[in-house]
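Appendix B, record 7
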Amino acid sequence: MNNSFSRLTRMVFAAALAVVFTSVAHAQNATSQGDKSIPLSKVEMKNRAPVSKEILKVNLPKPYETKLSNGLTVLILENHRLPTATVQFNISGAGAVYEPADEPGLASITASMVTQGTASRSSKQIAEEIDRLGANVGASAAFGSGALGVNASGLSDNMDQWFALATDVLLHPNFPQDELAKLKTRMKAGLKTQRTQPNFLASERFNRAVYGNFPAAVISATDESIDKISADDLARWHRERWVPQNAILAIAGDVDAKALTPKLEKWLAEWHKTDYEIPATGNPTPTSTKKIFLIDRPNSVQTTIYMGNIGIDRRDPDYPAMVVLNQILGAGPQSRLFINLRENKGYTYGVYSNFVSLKFAGPWRAYGDFRTDVTDGSMTELFNEINRISSEAVAEKELDDAKRTVVASFALTLESPSQVLSYTTNTKIYGFPEDYWDKYPAKITAVTAADVQRLAKKFYNANAMQIVAVGDASKIKSVMEKYGPVEVYDANGKPASGGASASTPGSR
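Structure tokens (predicted):
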């Protein structure tokens, strides 16, 4: 990435942020200083994006690509600005969506345990070696994903040492019983803490509602699954799923691609190809009827609300338009939800929307925490904004500002070699054309008001909305009943006594 391109990305994004944050900061400062002359409801949000209408020209560096003899795909991006390197292993088929139904947490526990001991190193030795080398080595497998990641980084001049450590963690974990017992204890304590958090409770019920029986409905391990999972289970999962033919190794930094490739063959010679093929997961579909779920938290002073449904997968041609739609509705403090429910109404500190798109369709959602006494008004305004963006074409200026904000945000990410590396990996994972990210700004700029309204009508269907509220049922149940029959649950996810009869979570 040349210096002129770096300067361009900084200039584009700085112009966008300066104006957006100035307007928000002015409102917040006036309030904090006790300036009653400018109430939040009267603050004018300028929402000015960069004035230039030129399409950002992008020409991302193309990686050196090769395939090792074990079937591992390797992508290498040379970047010699800093004497560092970053390594990302992306292993498909080993993520949480492929776990047995009675063992939620198997993928994430396996990932957590690989740094807790190998055939030749204890957890303490691994930690000390990471510290001595000034490196980072870790692994993670998030719920809702079909892949896991093993990441490492450090100085390029001692890459052979920290890469050897990462390779040991990747290939030779021994899942020691004492470390597994400690992890299980920590996880069980974490489960108790989770159930005190309204956003966890909302996410749990929301995912079950929108995904139904699809594996991504599960967002957490359970006490039962933690007890059930053994070191042998972890070793089997690692042996069967952590295989090179389903993996991508992406490397960025101060390296020589052609000189590094034969070293990788040597370093990863023990990682053998298998016959394991990734099973098909199918694709979740949007629910067709509206449902309302209430999780009772007695004496709660706020109501956490999630609403949404299934949207699109990452390969959908409408993805750029979905990004713009989300930007207009609730991606940030310049979006409609924030301006209405925070700046104009003062119902909340923040309200947003987002969406998830992977190899399978994920959900979109609008969400926020609202004072209990304004739950009714908050629900009204959430639906008002969702209905408005579906029924009215967005104004040209608002659309233009949203598109330029998206492009400016994208430009900033190009300053990060690790983010550029992720773009490169995604190109491979999703089968995008080689110039996908070069054309991404132009695709965002080409989104029309008709595109935005078409997608909003298709996915933001108020009559099929899945609505979750977490709060004091004695105070908000009557509010939620205005939108239909309410299924009431307690903080343990069980149907609450005295609540409406609860159907099977996520049933359609």
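Remarks on this record: The first strand starts at residue 64 and ends at 67. The radius of gyration is 24 Å.
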